[in-house]
Specification:
- The structure is a single chain.
- This protein has eight helices and no strands.
- Helix 6 (118-127) packs across helix 8.
- The protein is globular, with a radius of gyration of 17 Å.
- It has two domains: 1-80, RNA polymerase sigma factor, region 2, helix turn helix motif (Rna Polymerase Sigma Factor, Chain: A, Orthogonal Bundle), CATH 1.10.1740.10; 91-166, Winged helix-like DNA-binding domain superfamily/Winged helix DNA-binding domain (Arc Repressor Mutant, subunit A), CATH 1.10.10.
- It is an all-alpha fold.
């Protein structure tokens, strides 16, 4: 893969990768850093990629980078809570973080299995956490159409049974 092709890959998936990182680490700036690290790691190992779809591969790299960051000493020391706030805030445990990552990965995989146009609206709504209005602008569709497609996608995801939707 040449640099132009990789640049297209970055443009195509940077929003998704940022969203995955941000949902896991809950820090905008760190999510930006992790997005860059994800694409750097992908670039350095692109010659070993044997699949046909880059999306799940990139998501897996992003999740792993995010997990590594959350386990790192710099995260634990940077995010130490004020002693007065400790009682009011439930700390995020490694188990919570891994469960959140697994849930997100399961949701991404389930959304990818949906037929068009439901796969796209489900990913935008449930994975990237976008509003109906934002999805409407991105896809160039009326808000009501987006709402209907999200509703139908939710029903299809429930029938699949692999994800829990509230």
């Amino acid at each position: 893969m040449n640099e132009n092709d990789f640049a297209k890959l970055v443009r195509q998936y940077s929003s998704l990768i940022f969203t995955v990182c941000h949902r896991l680490v809950k820090d905008y700036h760190e999510a930006e850093n992790l997005t860059q690290e994800t694409f750097l790691a992908a670039f350095l190992s692109i010659d070993r990629f044997t699949g046909s779809d880059y999306k799940p591969w990139l998501v897996r790299i992003a999740v792993n980078k995010s997990k590594d960051y959350l386990k790192s000493a710099s995260y634990r020391t940077t995010h130490a809570y004020d002693s007065q706030m400790t009682d009011a805030i439930k700390p995020v445990t490694d188990r919570d973080m891994f469960e959140r990552a697994e849930t997100l990965e399961t949701m991404i995989a389930a959304c990818q299995k949906l037929p068009p146009p439901y796969n796209r609206v489900a990913t935008l709504h449930y994975v990237e956490d976008r509003s109906f209005e934002e999805i409407s602008k991105i896809l160039g569709k009326p808000v009501k159409t987006v709402q209907t497609q999200v509703y139908r996608a939710r029903n299809k995801l429930r029938k699949m049974g692999s994800v829990k939707l509230t």
